[in-house]
Amino acid sequence: MKIQTTGKIDSDEEGKFILGVSLEKQVSEEENAPKAILYAISNNFFLADYPITIQNTQVSPIEFYNNKDYFLNTLAELTKKEATISIRKNIGAVQYTPNLTGHNIIRSIIMLYPLSILILGMVIWHLRRKKR
Fold first, then answer.
1. Which residues are CB-contacts of 34 (< 8 A; sequence separation ≥ 6)?
2. What is the C-alpha separation between 16 and 72, in angstroms, rounded?
3. Segment 84-114, tens digit of pLDDT
4. Which H or E run contains 35?
5. How far apart are CA 37 and CA 55, in angstroms?
6. Given strand 57-59, what is the order of strands in its sheet?
7. Which residues contact 22 (CB under 8 A, 6 or more apart)?
8. Tell me: the pLDDT tens digits for 32-70?
9. Nearest Cα to 90, choosing from 115, 72, 116, 111?
10. Rounded to two decimals, what is the model's pTM?
């Protein structure tokens, strides 16, 4: 899938949309009977690790907005565990994808800077040796 823009386009619909609902049903008619809970989410693609190309970057839908937090909070509620951490650690890796010019500049800096320090050190060493 190739996406050209991350913003709203003219053909997008206006309004609010239901992305997910929580359904509860009493299992039996007893007073303390457990409830069955179902979370219906309108999109099964929001947790996918399928790469989507946006301009020159590939990302997974789970990395968009708060998809990961939404899913983890839903699981926490289903297991009746309170969320103890509201901001989760982001362990996503950032991939360096420069254009050819940027790549050549970075490569020359990585190669030339240490090489110039080495040459400067050798020149200083040679000049100090001559002074003796």
1. 27
2. 23
3. 556 666 666 677 778 889 889 989 999 999 9
4. strand 35-41
5. 40
6. 2-3, 52-54, 57-59
7. 37, 38, 39
8. 888 888 888 877 677 777 777 777 777 777 777 777 777
9. 72
10. 0.44
